[in-house]
């Protein structure tokens, strides 16, 4: 019977793996370096995780868990425009302090790397679904213009948010300005872009700006 890994040992291994996958990507990441950093044998690593892919799947799960702990959904899962803005603020602040998490989640979402297995593709689809959930929930409470396709609107909102987030995280990482000032600039730009997009997507005066 497989020995259950202790929580502190699991986190130590996953922290080492997060750092390695973030720095080098899935293909170039070395399980030898992960073992050295976590101070465990390679045999023990594969006893727990069976394969590099299984370890990466655990890393993705931990990154998502950490992110969701920092950015929980509102009570009842109902999103107003203000709550969408607040979620984006929390997420940017989290990633600004956890660039390794951002690199790994970005690799899964945007770089199409990994081993091409069905399990890897399923991880990617699950993360994309989680990422879209808040905007999907928000749009469900809006009356869209007749000519607007709901899925196209969703992709537009997600794409715009991703691009603004990438822009400001790059500036924060290069330390071009105060992080707090950049955060305020991010929020203002995101507010403006979201407002412009909603003007073209949602019927006049119909999108939720507060709870009823």
List keywords for this structure.
9 helices, mainly alpha, 212 residues, single chain
**What would you call the structural class?**
mainly alpha
What portion of residues belong to β-strands? under 5%
End-to-end distance: 54 Å
The helical percent reads over 70%
Mean pLDDT: 84
- The helix count comes to 9
**Biggest β-sheet description:** none
What sequence of helices (H) and strands (E) makes up the elements? Answer: HHHHHHHHH
Large-scale geometry:
elongated
Query: How many beta-strand elements?
Result: 0
Low-confidence regions? none
What does this structure look like?
The model has no long low-confidence stretch (mean pLDDT 84). It is built from 9 helices and no strands. It is mostly helical. It has helices spanning 7-28, 31-38, 42-49, 52-70, 81-97, 99-110, 118-140, 150-173, 179-201.
What's the helix and strand layout?
Blueprint: H1 7-28, H2 31-38, H3 42-49, H4 52-70, H5 81-97, H6 99-110, H7 118-140, H8 150-173, H9 179-201
Q: What's the short story on this structure?
A:
The chain is mainly α.
